Each structure stands twice: as C-alpha cells, then as structure tokens.
Structures
1.
Amino acid sequence: MSKFPEDLMYAETHEWIKKDGDLFLVGISDYAQEQLGDIVYVDFPEIGKVINIGEQCGELESSKAVSEINMPFKGTIVEVNTELEETPELINESPYDAWIIKIRAENSSDYNNLLNSREAQKVIEGDE
Amino acid sequence: MNYNEPLLWEKGEGLTTGYSFPKESVPQTESNSRHLRDNFFLPSFSEPVVARHFTRLSTWNYGVDTDIYPLGSCTMKYNPKIHERIAQLKGFSDSHPLQDDNYSQGALEILYKTGEYLKEITGMDDVTLQPAAGAHGELVSMLMFKKYFKEREENRTTVLIPDSAHGTNPASATMCGFKVKVVPINSDGYLMPEVVEKYMDESVAGIMITNPGTLGLFEPYIKEICDIVHSKGGLVYGDGANLNPLLGQIKVGDCGIDAMHINLHKTFSTPHGGGGPGAGPVCVKKLLSDYLPSPGVKFNGTNYYMDYNNPKSIGRVHGFNGNFSVVLKACSFILSQGAEGLKKISEVAVLNANYVRVKLSEFYHIPYSADSMHEVLFTDKYQKKIGISTLDIAKGLIDRGIHPPTIYFPLVVSDAFLLEPTENESLKSLEHLIDIFIDIAKEAEYNSQKLKDAPTKSVINRVDETLAARHPVLKGEILGRD
C-alpha cells in the first residue's frame, strides 16, 4: 500500500506539493515511484522559467519508461534539486524527502485546490 | 557449446597487427594536421583473433531464423531466403545509382512498381520510397503537413497524439516544430470521436493515429475521427507500424488517412533490426502529392525515369533512391504472395494472436476485453501478488530458449507485455510458445525464486539494468594500460 502523508497536497498526475515558506516543493508520490520503478535520470526544467498548470516541468527516466512531471499550478521554477543528478535513487528510497523542483506560485491559493491525502488515495484506488 | 567471450578491449594487450602494407613507392611525408593524436589507443589484433571473436559472439545471436520472435509492435517476420538471392542478382547488385536512367530501367521499374503495389494496398494516390525507416517516414509526413499549411498560409501549431501512440510520433511532430497535445484513450482502449472533437480546432495541424493501436485493438471509430479532423481543416497521419492485420482487409485510404508510412521491414518481411537497413515508404492522398520528397520515380508509357521537377517538394530525405535492396526484397515478397497471399497473411496473423490470447487468458491478465488484431496485450497483474514481475516473466522465457516479447509497452497499461506471433507460426509452434508461458506462470507460483534468478542458462545472467543506466560505462579501455 502506498503512503500519502497528511501534511502534503497532491496533484492528480501523482506529484506531491509541500509548502516551504512562501515557495512550494514538488516531488512525486510513493505510488508514482513504485509504478515507475528504479529511476535512473532526472531531467530538470530551466530555472526562472514560467510554466502553466498541467504543463511539463521535468522528466523522470526509469528502467521501464520515461515519465513527465507536471506543474501542479502556474508558477516560476526557482530551484531544482541537483542532488538528484548523481543520486536519482533518492526518489525511490524516500519519495517525500526527495523534492525535485522548487516553485513560486503565481497565485498561492492554488495550493488549496490540490488534493489532500485522502482524495489522492482515492484517485489511485481508481487506477488500481 | 556455451563459452564466454571477452570484449576486444579485455582480450589482452591488443598490440598485434592484423595487416601488412606493401613497401611504399613514394617517400614519406610529415603530416602537420592538428587532428593528429598520439594518446589514442585502439586494440589491434591479428585477423584470426578478430574473426574468432566475432564468430563466437555471433553464436549468442537470437533471430527470426532461430525460433519464434514474438516482439509486439515490431512484426518480426521470417525473411524468405529467395529475397536475398534476388537482391544478389548481378543486374541489381552491380548497378550504381549514378548510372543514367537508360541503363537503370530494371531497377527503376522495381521502384515504380513497388510504389504502385503499396498504393494499391493502402488505397492512396501517391508514394515516396525514400525514407529509410518508420520514424523517418513519420518525420517526412510531418514535414509535408507543415509545408501543406505553409502553402495555404495557415498557422497551425499543434499535433494531436493518442496516449497509446508509439513514442516516435511525438518526437517526429516535435522535430517539425509542432506542439504535441496528448489525447487520452477510453477505458476500453479506444480513441473516441467525442474526445478528439474536444481537442480539435483551427490551431491543430492534424492527428497521428496508429490503427490497430499499440494495444492490439482496431480503432472502430477511425472514419468518424478522420471526418472530425478534416472538418476543421486538419490532416490525418496513419502510423503504419501495425499494417500487418489490415493487408487485403481494408484500405487505409478509405478510412480517411491522408499520409501513412509503411515499414517494409515489418509487414513486407525485409530484414529487421540488426539484420540490415529498413525502409519506411510514405503513401499520401493527392492533396499532399506535391510535397513528396524529390526525386520520385515516374513512367511515361515507355520509360521509367527519375523526376526532379517537384518545385513544392520538401526536398530530398535520403541519398539516391532510399534503401533500394530493401524495396527490392519487399517487391519480391509482395509478388510471391500475390493479392490472395497478402490477405491470408492478415487473417493468419490475427488468428494466431487470438489463439495465444484465449489459451493464455486463464494464466495472465488481459487488460482489454475486445478481440486482438495481430498482437495481444497481457500484464503481470496475477503474478504481481506473488512478487513476480513482467521483467521476471521475460527473463524466464530466455531460459526456455524463446526471445521475450515487448515489455513495459505501451505505457498506458502498467507492467504490460505485448506478444505478436505473426503469421509465420504454425499451430505446433504456437502450442510450444503457449506451453512455455504456462510453465512460467506455474513456476511463478511454485518456485518463484528460480524465476527471479532467471536467466541462468544464458551466457550473461540477469544484468543490473538500473546500475547500467545510472552509471553507464561508455568508453572501452585496453586493460592494464595507462
């Protein structure tokens, strides 16, 4: 059973989002990393780029597939987790510590429209 | 015999010489090129060492001549040996593409007639034989779409692609500067007209559809989808990778497809993969004829000739006339099968896939309920509960002497494996394949560790694919040398 910590919010496309001061951290859920299998490469977006909700803001390559990371709401890429360049396995080992990108939301209240842990759990039950 | 063979880099000092030059008849001169390097070591061996190395490696090969090769979406057919013989006829093998048309009438006739056959098979109006592979055919088609809209001064920026498509489709569209919008298929595995309608507007250049799709299912709404795209001024591209089950059954042109590539190395049995170059001819409707690559082969009633007068063409996409010998072998295949034979191919290919589907349905999960076309999709859902994955099943096949099917594709189905037996396999051969799959399903249940350790009978056992991807070694180095 995949874990969905209650202090995080989630996107339907299996990203988690965490409030970090007035910025937001984005990673992928335990369920997503499990589905992808061993992640071998992370392709980061350009820092400073403004990306719309639902658009691609990075790519994860696993031994099974290449999968997109999607922007949970419109915002600017502030920072990427360069530690994952050398050690992408951190996403598998500890998906909720391994943030991938840090974003500044255009509208911070968008965060409240995301799924909470219980709702995210429901979405994947539909998948399974 | 089962022996190991190190890489040439690992084969010892690699300092012997495999050649001897005759004594030079001109004085030596010094080269001052800045490209000269003296710190560059390639292993060097005598001729017998090299010959043995590659011969030993070749004994590890698995090909369509070894046994069944059920690689879904790849249509790995047997390549009849007569095609090689025809390709080696002196008139073909000794001809040169720079010969004048008058001296190349036979070769030009082959190109022209093969094009005519492909037009007849697809129900299209025109053809180019230049593209060298399927994805190249996709690219050529997208370039033609681009040019078509440019000529009409329409600014269309987006291409629609179902989420079940081959990964090459979005790559081809992106290379032509289009933005890709992914269209979801429904829970039965079909692309639905109402969904396409929602995505389709005047900013969309067209859609790329594979039919049957990568789930091995025929798209029943193909005609309606084409009509919707056309009604908004868009074009429809058909990915011809899965043409095999349609041969002689329907003409894709009648469905509303405007351009389609054909993989001669799949459907028309020319060598595939490491066996040689491929060919990805593109058939088009009249509205795209002007944009086809130049030159094309034409016939004026008496002579065949290369036609360079194509002012609106997207230009040349391959040296000379594409991979001629591949086209020649496909021509040989089409003529040796005849219209009836081609029809029989699609029937037997579909029958074979469905036979495997039904026989294995109680052992492996089938995600979609519709009958299969030429390939059948399974997942590891039943085995996952006992800790066995699609990868383990694939590795178990290697120990049983069978090439694994396509795994973890298509991406819309998790942990899929896609089996395409093709029309080549006899009932006996299919039963053999089915028995092996059942044996693996049982081993998963009763002796799962053995499956997790597989393959153990191959020269190289289970490789750590993750390690290889995370820390790839991309450079050969002679051992023991600085």
2.
Amino acid sequence: MVRFLAGRALALVITLLAATLVVFLVLNVVPGDPAAYMMGLGGDPAALAELRRELGLDLPVWQRYFAWAGGLAMGDFGVSYTYRVPVGDLILERMRVTLPLTLMAMALSTALAIPLALFAAGRRGRAADAAVSGLAQVGLAIPNFWLAILLVFVFSTTLKLFSAGGFPGWEAGVWPALKALVLPAVALALPQAAVLTRVARGALIETMGEDYIRTARAKGLSERRALRDHALRNAMIPVLTILGLQFTFLLAGGIIIENVFYLPGLGRLVFQAIAQRDLVVVQGVVIVLVFAAVLVTLAVDAAYALADPRVGKGRR
Amino acid sequence: MTLLAIDRLSLAIGGKLILRSVSLTVAPGEILGLVGESGSGKSMTLNAIMRLGPPGTRTEGAIRFEGADLLAGPERAMESVRGRKIGMVFQEPMTALNPVQTIGRQVAECFRLHLGFGAREALAEAAERLRRAGLPPEIVPLDRYPHQLSGGQRQRVVVAIAAALGPKLILADEPTTALDATARGGIIDLLAGLARREGAGLVFVTHDLASIAGIADRIAFMKDGEVVEEGSAPSIFRSLRHPYAQSLLAASALPPIAPDEAAGGTEPIVEAVDVSVVYGGGVRAVDGVSLTLMSGESLAIVGESGSGKSTLARSVLGLEPLAAGTVRIAGTDIHRASGGALRAARAAIQAVFQDPYGSLNPRHRIERIVAEPLHLLGRIASAERRARIARALADVGLPPDGARRYPHEFSGGQRQRIAIARALISEPKVIVLDEAVSALDVTTRAQIVALLRELSRRRGLAYLFITHDLDAARAVANRVVVMRRGRVVEEGRTAAVLAQPHDPYTKELIAAAPDLETVLAAREAEARTR
C-alpha cells in the first residue's frame, strides 16, 4: 500500500511538472504577445514596453519558465496585473469560500446518492426503482442555475430562512458563513447527486450478479443485507472515480452558482481575470486547479486501495 | 428417515421448462451424487432447494426438508434455513468469496447472522471452523483476503462457511471441477467427512463420475431436466440401463492413444533449449526446460497449477519474454525473428486455450474470428478466404452457415471447435493446446479429444498438449513431460510413465486423480472384505 501510493505520488509530481510546462507554453510561447493582449486594443507603445518588462517578456523563454516555475515552487504566483496584489493571496482568499462550498456540496451529494442507490438497487425493476431513476433523470436535466434561482425564491424570498446571496466572511463567525453556503451547496449538489445515484445504482446492480453475493445469500443473508454488507464496498470503485471527477469540476465549475449567489469564489476570480485579460491570475488559478486535480487523483487512488485490498498489490 | 424429499419438482424460468418432475431423497449421513452434463438441470435442482433461482423462476411440486415444504414458506423462513440448516458449496472458488473481506470475517458472518455472536466470539468460532476445514490460522491467518489464497484453499473457506453451523444438509455444486487433481482429493475427503462424521446429508453435483464414485451412497443421472436413472453406488455402475447413463460412463474413460500413433516424423517442429522465464520478484516460473517436438508428434505436459506448464506454453508461442534459452519453431527463433520470418513461424504454431467463453470476441462473427490468423499469410483473395473458412469449419464438424453467427449462439463444446478451427486456418504444423479440454464436461471432452486425434492423423499435426488431466494426456499423447516448480521432473512414453512413475511427484499426481475403474475396483474390494 505504501509503495503503491509512493509510486502514484511520483507519477503525480511528474504530471504536475508537465502541466506547468503546458500551461506556460500555451500562454507565453504560442504566437501573440501576452502584454499586447493584456493591454487591449490601442495600447500606448511606451506602456506596452513597460508591461513587457514588468512581465519579464524581454527575457529568453527558458529563463521566463524557470523564473515562473521556481516562483511557483516557493508559493509565489506573481502579481496580479489588475488588482496589483500577489496572485497567491487572491487565490488563497477565494479558496476559503470555494473549498468549503465544494466539500459541502460533495458531502451532500454523497449523503443523498448512496442511500438512494441502495434503495433503488434493492428494489430493482419495481416502481420504487423506477421512481428513483426518474428522479435522477430530472436531476440531470435541471440546469443548476435554474435550481439556484428556485432555491433563492423559495428559501430566501418566500420563507426568509436564508439570505439570497453574498458571503459575510469567516470573520463574521463560522455559523453565518456556513449558512451563506447552504443554498449554493444544495444547488451544486443536486445535479451531482443525480449522476452519482445513477452510477452507484448501476454498480450495485452489477455487483449483485457476482458469485460471492450468491454465497452470501446461501449463508442466509436477505437480499438487502447482502446489498449493504457485501455489494456496497465492491461497488465503490466507480463511485470513487466519479467523486474524484466531481470534486475537481466543482472547484472551478461553481462559477455560475457563485455568480447567482454573489459568492467571492475561485470561479468568479477566473471569470473576472479572463474578462480583464489578467493572464497572471489566469495562469495562477489554472496551476492551482491542476494541483488540486492531481491531489484529488492521489486521494482517490488511496481510497481505491482502502476499498479493495487487491489494488496496488500487483494482482487484480 | 428422510431428511430431504424432492417430490415431483418442475421448474420453469421465463416460461422455459428446466426441470421436469424431479423426485429425489436424501437421508441423514447419506451422500447422493447428482450426475449429468452441462444444462441437464443438476445445478438448478440445488438452487431450487435453496430457493435461489434467477428472477422469474416458477416451481411446481414440493421440496420437503425435515418434513416442511421449503417452497411453501415465506422468504423470511427460508433465510433462517439457508446457512444454518442447509449449507452450499459452489463451483468457482475464485469468485465465490467476497474479494474485499477477510476470510475470517466471511466465516464469522454465519455466527453473527444466525446466532447473534459478537465480533470477537464469532471470529474465534471461525478460526475453529477453518481449522477443521484444513486451514489452521497458524498457517493461513484469519485476516487473509481471498486473492492471497490458492484455489484449493479458497474452496476450503467456502466449505468452512457451508459447514460452519453444523447444517443438516450440504449442497455441493461441482465443488472440485475448477480445482487441479491434488486439491480435488482434499475437498472430496472434507465433504465426505462432513457426511460420515457429522451425519449431514450431502448432495454432490458433478459431471465427473470418477470424483463421486469413491464416496457416493447413491447416484442419480440427470438429462434434460429429468432423473433418468438412479441407484446405489457402486453397484449401479455395473448395471446401467439408460443409454444416456451408459454414454456418460463410456465418455468418462477416454480410450488411450494407440502406441504407434502420433509417433512423430524426422523434422523437429518445436525446439526449446534451456528455456527460463522469470517473473517480477525473481520467481522462476520456468527454470531451464528443454524439449523437442517432432512433426506430427503429440507431447503432453502435465503438472498441477503453478508448475509452470502454461508459462512454458506461452514462451513456446513467443508470448512470454525469456530470461534465458531459445525457442525455435520450424527452425526459426520465434523470440528474435521479425518481419516475414516471424509471421511464417507464427503461422506454423497456433494455440487453443482453456476458456471457450473468454477466448472468442463476443462481438465478432465466427467467420471473422476463424479468419484472424490469415493475416500471417499475407494478402488472400476473398474467395480463397471464404473457402478456407468453410474448410476449417468443416474440419471441426461445424455447419457452414455457422460462419455468419456469433459466439453466444454456440455451446461450450462448439466454441472450443471454433477455437480449433481458428488454430487450423493458417495450416500450422503444431498446435499448443493449453488446458483445451479441461473446462468441458465429460461427453464434450470425449468428443473434442476424438476430434483432435482425427485431425492429427489426417493432417500430420503435432500437438503440445498442456493439461492437468492425466486421462486426457493418455488419450492424446504418446510422450509426456511432468513439470513441477518450473522444472521437468520426469519424461517418457505416456503409458509407461503413468503406469510406473519413478518420480515421487508423478506418483502423487497419479494417486490424486484415480480413474473411474480404479475407484470402483477399490470400493468393490473394500465391500468384499467387510
């Protein structure tokens, strides 16, 4: 297990290095002048030259890469062109909203999806199963911004249980901050839960056809108990894969929801940075997302090994 | 007193009749052998007793167990019978255990479920049950996972689960079919012991008469969902009346090959010199093996699982990188050749594997599967291609219209014929048969063995016949090599080696897999002395 994870970690460090190279090449070496792009049309030539020097564009490419990658390794993401503050600080501040939001959404979607999938798989082919599948279908079809607006309408405008948007900051206390994240988390979680339910139900039903489930039934376990005690853990591999993908997606993909609820999250930061042509910020956020994806992959690999003792033993 | 009485049981799945008015009885301590080929309904009879048939199963008749009809009660009542009063052992030890739970936990579950034991108490009982099944925790700890055990050990875990709570009845569904000869005997003794010492009734389903003849009190033959003949063992074997039972008996003893058959010509086809294959971790799967196969000759390689015989087969085919040594196929070094020479060598050596289900792509038509090796011969006009496919199918006894069909439309035996047709189409000089008849039931096995011998006679084909089935080795090959731990321990004429083995391991192999006649003779002798 330890050797397996060490091997995976090494592979991920290499992935990360490759990713920095690709991100750097795409934004810096591909034809076109980043400085001219950031200045927009009709920039003053003197200001452009100034910006080029500030961005270090007057240096050779390989020097620029090592300066940038070396800075990254030290936690220095450069200085934002529009905000004039270190990009690292910007990202860190936004992460304090996005990370809790993502984790809440993930927890909620898992807490919904797994019981629903167990319920449906235990009654496959019957009305209850069809109802869950139908529900999941609807969940997949509903756009999350529409769901967000609906939630705001019901829970803030009508019932006045939650505020319609904004984020008070963690300084205002843990509870008010968490409360501000509840509706966005629900809006993010429901469509994810729909996907997860479908995947988990399918994996469970496939597992129920395995020989060891017949052994469990022959021991005297009821079908539902066999499902819970024997099928669930065996069906976890595809579920963990989806969870890992969803986590990475939610980190940056919450942008629409962040906009609906006026949340100062990572998604909005990228959106604004792109709109303002602040390439330093875009580059920094992309690297952070790649890093997060890499870490999540490692976590999912570790979870595979925990779920299935055969993983990483060189024998499957 | 009867323990189990199946009374005119009929069973249909989705409107298709699988069992027709089956009646059987089992007394406490009695061993009933239920024999028949694949699809005869013997496994379905066991599933019906457990009420674990597939969805859409409809039954008629009664299954009385300790006087009460199992088919009549609610599912809840059945759950307290399963595992507690009736235990079941399955065919495939590789898949019958949950891969993500330790073996201790899986045995302990019986005690937790039925007797409400706590985790620690249940685990202590599990340890005792595994010990009685031949897996003492000092040697095989309780926290092992199934994938860390051999096939025979896993089957012992399954038996420990079935026998955990001292059930009155044990149902064993082909419990030894997937095991090699040495593991097989241990499982048979273990199951027979449960009946003899603990007084449980045992229903032992098998297609292999030799494995049941030594222990059964009674034998019932099933065909197409009906019991066609039933009687006391061993005397029933001397007085079988039903033609189907007689044909099973005939098929279970393969006629040995004639001493002068498949003797081999003068031209060496396969020359393996000092072949070694080393796996990760330094395991020498094949350790300095040399052998030569002449044109038209059949050579059997026998040994138990893990002896390296399949690895040797793959290295002869050029599929396994060698750590040392060379393999020449019709003079060409198959591991170092490239281009046209390699293609010619590959066309000269073809292979048929064990699993007729896994080795044919389910999404391809038979014509495409069979024609696959033709690319080794360069461009072939489509008329010629069709003619060759038709000829290959005819050679293995399949109808020409089979070419347009898909693998799932064929039975296991027919699929093995398709695999043989594929091996024949490039007109090879030698075919490697890796456990090619091991997964087949006795009737099909006899047919495929006859086909192989006919093909070798007609086309002068050489075989490298890898098997753990000594009976099949005797029927196909006049020369045999015995392998153990990657090395050759004995070789010579098949009849001589199997009649007077010199190596202790060969003796062990032979003792572990007695043929039906030997088993019957031993039982009759025992009956006379009593």
